[in-house]
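Is this the right way to post structure tokens for a design question? Let me know if I should format differently. Anyway, here goes:
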């Protein structure tokens, strides 16, 4: 892995996070290339991370073993079709982190023989605590799968899904998931202030409580339901609050929200994909 040369088309926040994670795990900055149309961004990456930079996408294709497409979905087709002639008959692995662009579209734009891994990372990758699901097309060999996994593991946990269609559900759960927690935290903070706490106190308590709850869930081999029962004393304050959530159909509402996110992911894929 540390001997592989990795290229990025797109040098935005997610690409920068992946690069930082790779460097922190021992990958040499001199084996990383970044291409972007933003000259100031490239200079910043070169200055702070010591990586190689270029404003021409085709410059890095002949240099790298794996190319990460860290591009906004609406721009991906145009860029993919421009680099396709250079990729023809190339052994390069393509890793796409663009939401909503499926492998069928990527293969049509890049070439049917292209080895492609499609990933669905989430924004906690920006602080190296991301969760990423991956799916490989049939052109990807085991060595390339390991390479893709190691790149994304630099910013958090990784897991493979058996069917690409599962990535729509992944998008609804972990891709959009951080916003759900932020909404709950936002509502709790507002309520805490109404109960008499200062914003500073409320925010710190909520942040640490969220962190602690996640840590318990990760480290204890018990279901969320079991953990909830353990902290809910009969007739106590927690039960009083949870009963209000249940009266508001909390679980059905969550289910409805995730289904809406999944359906939107499917629609976006159809809109942004190959026609």
């Amino acid at each position: 892995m540390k001997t592989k040369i990795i290229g990025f088309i797109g040098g935005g926040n997610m690409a920068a996070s992946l690069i930082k994670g790779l460097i922190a795990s021992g990958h040499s900055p001199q084996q990383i290339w970044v291409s972007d149309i933003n000259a100031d961004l490239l200079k910043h990456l070169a200055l702070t991370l010591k990586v190689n930079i270029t404003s021409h996408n085709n410059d890095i294709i002949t240099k790298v073993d794996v190319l990460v497409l860290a591009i906004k979905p609406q721009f991906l087709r145009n860029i993919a079709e421009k680099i396709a002639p250079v990729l023809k008959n190339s052994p390069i692995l393509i890793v796409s982190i663009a939401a909503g662009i499926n492998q069928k579209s990527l293969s049509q734009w890049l070439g049917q023989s292209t080895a492609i891994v499609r990933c669905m990372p989430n924004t906690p990758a920006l602080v190296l605590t991301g969760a990423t699901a991956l799916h490989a097309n049939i052109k990807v060999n085991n060595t390339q799968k390991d390479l893709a996994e190691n790149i994304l593991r630099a910013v958090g946990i990784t897991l493979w899904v058996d069917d690409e269609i599962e990535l729509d559900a992944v998008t609804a759960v972990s891709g959009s998931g951080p916003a759900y927690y932020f909404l709950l935290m936002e509502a709790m903070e507002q309520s805490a202030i109404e109960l008499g706490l200062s914003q500073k106190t409320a925010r710190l308590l909520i942040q640490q409580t969220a962190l602690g709850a996640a840590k318990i869930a990760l480290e204890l081999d018990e279901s969320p339901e079991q953990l909830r029962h353990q902290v809910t004393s009969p007739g106590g304050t927690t039960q009083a609050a949870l009963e209000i959530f249940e009266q508001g159909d909390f679980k059905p509402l969550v289910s409805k929200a995730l289904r809406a996110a999944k359906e939107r992911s499917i629609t976006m894929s159809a809109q942004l994909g190959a026609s």
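Format looks fine. Someone answered above. Worth noting: The two ends are 36 Å apart (CA to CA). Strands lie at 6-9, 32-35, 52-54, 66-69, 93-96, 115-120, 130-136, 156-160.
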